[in-house]
Design a protein that fits this description.
Layout lengths: L1 E10 L2 E11 L4 E5 L6 H8 L7 E6 L2 E2 L4 H6 L1 E4 L11 H11 L5 H14 L15 H12 L6 E5 L7 H16 L3 E5 L3 H7 L2 E6 L2 E6 L1 H7 L6 H9 L3
Parallel strand pairs: 3-8, 3-9, 6-7, 7-8
Antiparallel strand pairs: 1-2, 1-4, 4-5, 9-10
Bound molecules: adenosine-5'-triphosphate and magnesium ion.
Amino acid sequence: MIKIENLSKHFGELIAVDGLSIEIPRGEFFAFLGPNAAGKTTTIKLLTGLLKPTSGGVSICGYDIQKDYVKAKALISYIPDFPFLYDKLTGREFLDFIVQLYPNNRKRQTEELMKELLFVFGLEKYKDHLLEYYSHGMRQKLVFAASLLHDPNVMIIDEPMVGLDPHSAKVVKDILKNKSREGVTIFLSTHTLSVAEELSDRIGIIDKGKLMAIGTLDSLKSSFDIKGKLEDVFLRITEEE
Ligand SMILES: Nc1ncnc2c1ncn2[C@@H]1O[C@H](COP(=O)(O)OP(=O)(O)OP(=O)(O)O)[C@@H](O)[C@H]1O
Ligand SMILES: [Mg+2]
């Protein structure tokens, strides 16, 4: 569903992503782990077509994200690490705006889905408040709700748990689990190792732009002969020389 082929991104002298190749089959929950500045967000921006690669490429369900941008993008829901929201809209108006970006949505169904999502994320009470008064976590949850309005085939999510309280984090995790069960392909970058441990089918560890290890939790632990937690694998791989 997601094919990353020999993908690189240079910013001047700096190589942020260095020859990354990963194939993610339909329905897989893939966790992308790495320390700060490893190249996770840059990779995600390349996956969503927001950045142009220096070399290599990405296709989503066979559509090249650069050449077939519109078709590829229609399959994706992207939840950025720092979402951009229009502060002068209310929560409800923002969701309406997102719905209009996807004209194929059926009105009645979307209306019901929107109500359900506002309820699930605990935002019903605030739907008529301006976004400028939303807290960080509320904004995060609203963006999650918006991302689910058009029934995505692929969800690409950058650090979803940052700034969420335990209850909200659980709501988001449960939603992701459900989406994964429904067959949605998920690519999620996170520092929250417990999230990767709990949710993902497969984990890729990136450091200094390079894929250092990839596999299931068990296969990663056994190849590094580690009996403990994912954190021990992560620290072993990303230790500073
Ligand atoms: N537009 C840009 N111009 C120049 N350098 C950039 C740009 N975007 C990212 N970088 C650099 O690329 C490297 C990778 O950054 P990136 O944001 O992808 O890391 P990350 O793994 O998402 O880190 P974090 O965990 O802190 O979010 C960093 O050294 C960063 O400074
Ligand atoms: Mg990042």
